[in-house]
């Protein structure tokens, strides 16, 4: 009986000692220090001027056919006579952004508009549409996203 009492006393005292230990200390964990880098001072988020990006894209891919002001009309490109759409008319203003992106991405073969698939990222396509809407079509810019 004394033997069981001693074992019980040992177990209870061990539990007390373990439960009273400093719980604020982190557990000992092995870490490979070569993979740890001290956090640097965070850099401010990069901001992209969407209209400037869109203007550059429009100048690169669209202005030769649709003209700098977006009015389109007859042009000769690589010996081929084309009649690009007037981006400033009511019909083009009524197109959704997604429809414009579709036309730019896939082209309109019957009308001679080439496909620009793989030449612009999704963000660049959105910048291009924003430029067309605001600067070419003179529509008000879309409201800023709510935080």
Written description of the protein model:
The protein has 147 residues and is mainly alpha-helical. It has a domain at 50-136: Orthogonal Bundle (Cytochrome Bc1 Complex, Chain D, domain 2). 43% of the residues lie in helices and 4% in strands. The protein has 6 helices and 2 strands. It has helices at residues 2-19, 50-61, 63-66, 90-93, 97-106, 122-136, and strands at 75-77, 80-82. Helix 2 (50-61) crosses helix 6 (122-136). The protein is globular, with a radius of gyration of 33 Å. It starts with a helix and ends in an 11-residue tail after the last helix.
* N→C terminal distance: 71 Å
In round numbers, the mean pLDDT is 79
Could you name the CATH homologous superfamily of the domain at 50-136?
Cytochrome c-like domain
Under CATH, the topology of the domain at 50-136 is which? Cytochrome Bc1 Complex, Chain D, domain 2
What is the string of helix and strand elements? HHHEEHHH
| Sheet with most strands | 2 strands, antiparallel
Strand content: under 5%
- Secondary structure tally, helices: 6
**Poorly predicted residue ranges:** 4-19, 25-47
Strand order in the sheet with the most strands: 1-2
Please state the CA-atom Rg, rounded to the nearest Å: 33 Å
CATH architecture annotation name of the domain at 50-136: Orthogonal Bundle
The coarse overall form would be: globular
Kindly provide the name of the CATH class of the domain at 50-136: Mainly Alpha
- Secondary structure class reads mainly alpha
């Amino acid at each position: 009986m004394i033997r069981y009492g001693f074992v019980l006393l040992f177990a209870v005292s061990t539990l007390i000692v373990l439960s009273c230990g400093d719980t604020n200390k982190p557990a000992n964990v092995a870490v490979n220090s070569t993979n740890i880098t001290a956090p640097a001072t965070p850099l401010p988020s990069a901001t992209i001027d969407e209209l400037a990006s869109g203007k550059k894209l429009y100048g690169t891919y669209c202005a030769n056919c649709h003209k700098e002001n977006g009015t389109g009309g007859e042009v000769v490109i690589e010996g081929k006579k084309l009649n690009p759409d007037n981006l400033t008319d009511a019909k083009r203003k009524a197109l959704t952004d997604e429809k414009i992106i579709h036309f730019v991405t896939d082209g309109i073969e019957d009308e001679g508009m080439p496909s620009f698939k793989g030449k612009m990222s999704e963000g660049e396509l959105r910048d291009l549409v924003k430029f067309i809407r605001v600067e070419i079509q003179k529509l008000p810019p879309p409201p800023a996203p709510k935080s």
